[in-house]
Amino acid sequence: MSNEPNGKLTIRIVAMPADTNPSGDIFGGWVLSQMDIAGGVAAVQISKSRVVTVAVNAMTFIAPVKVGDVLCVYTKIIKIGTTSVTVAIEAWARRDRMSIREKVTEGHFTYVALDDKGKKCAVDR
Ligand SMILES: CC(C)(COP(=O)(O)OP(=O)(O)OC[C@H]1O[C@@H](n2cnc3c(N)ncnc32)[C@H](O)[C@@H]1OP(=O)(O)O)[C@@H](O)C(=O)NCCC(=O)NCCS
């Protein structure tokens, strides 16, 4: 597996104790949520409109995230459709005071552009 992230660093956030499951690992849902936020930022930048998540595809959890890890989320636009934007998203954990970097998740998130009334609209190219 490549040791270099694909895409642009879009958000970084520290995994906190409140985000753990009863085993002490970080919830998959928390990680997915951070990926959704990052993908939304990338989709808004491209569409220049508000967006909503329509699909999460090819989502893989590769390694656990631990309290204190810095979650770094990378985004890359892979498809611009009529009303949708698909973003390839990778999350990497930086551990041990940033000395280790490991890919923890990857997936493809699709967003639909909405107008001010909340109706789907063409992506502004
Ligand atoms: C997003 C939403 C407005 C789309 O409305 P719709 O009339 O069903 O839209 P369509 O079927 O025409 O699809 C719109 C676009 O999304 C794409 N799309 C729809 N379902 C998809 C899926 N499962 N995977 C990938 N792309 C998908 C379509 O290909 C289309 O892209 P294009 O215009 O670039 O060709 C509507 O489904 C919705 O409001 N969903 C809820 C979204 C939401 O609340 N998300 C947060 C979850 S808490």
Question: Which terms summarize this structure?
Answer:
alpha+beta; Thiol Ester Dehydrase, Chain A; 125 residues; single chain; elongated; 1 helix; binds coenzyme A; five-stranded antiparallel sheet
How would you describe this protein?
The chain is of the alpha+beta class. The chain has one helix at residues 28-47; strands at residues 8-14, 50-61, 70-80, 84-95, 100-114. A five-stranded antiparallel β-sheet has the order 1-3-4-5-2, with helices on one face. The structure holds coenzyme A (COA). Coenzyme A binds at residues 52-55, 81-84, 110, 112, 120.
Fold topology:
Blueprint lengths: L7 E7 L13 H20 L2 E12 L8 E11 L3 E12 L4 E15 L11
This protein binds coenzyme A (COA).
CATH class: Alpha Beta
Structural class: alpha+beta
Number of domains: 1
Side-by-side strand order of the widest sheet: 1-3-4-5-2
Let me know the average pLDDT: 95
CATH architecture classification = Roll
Count of separate DSSP helical elements:
1
Amino-to-carboxy terminus distance? 34 Å
- Radius of gyration (Å): 15 Å
Shape: elongated
Offer a quick outline of the entry.
With 125 residues, the protein is of the alpha+beta class.
